[in-house]
Amino acid sequence: MEVLVNTTEEDIDSGLLASLIPRMQFLRQENLRDDLRTLLLNYGFMDDELSIIDQHPDLNLTGKSVHSSQKSWASLLPQTIRSDFVNKNRLLFQIFPEYAND
Q1: Of the candidates 47, 65, 91, 97, which lies 20 to 30 Å from 22 by C-alpha distance?
Q2: CB 43 within 8 A of CB 31
Q3: CB-CB neighbours of 91 under 10 Å
């Protein structure tokens, strides 16, 4: 907690704070099969060991329509506050760069 209390803007901008946070792999619900396959391949599993992923039936029966979770975060904010939002949350975008260009 002391690290967060003493954090400066420079620590965030330099990437120092983000470098102290371990890299995590998240599996997204909307791409679960592909994300799980990629993760397991990276951990040394072979393709033939992963066939069960493709064979398992879908469990999410809500349909394949476009959900609000598939909208970009930027589309949910008025243009007038987006740059301020990005600036105030830049540490999160450093940790999760896949969301930075939404």
Answers
A1: 47
A2: no
A3: 16
- DSSP codes of every residue in 51-70: HHHHHSPP---S-SSPPGGG
What is d(CA 84, CA 90) in angstroms, rounded to the nearest whole number?
10
CB 50 within 8 A of CB 40: yes
Tokens of 61: 């029966």
pLDDT tens, position by position, 53-92 = 988 887 766 655 545 556 788 888 998 999 999 999 999 9
Query: Which amino acid makes up residue 63?
Result: G
C-alpha dist (Å) from residue 72 to 1, 26, 76, 101 = 31, 17, 7, 9
* pTM of the complete model: 0.59
Separation CA 85–CA 76 (nearest Å)? 12
- Count the residues in the chain: 102
- Residue 5: half-sphere exposure toward Cβ, Cα within 13 Å: 2
Amino acid identity for residue 36 in this structure: L
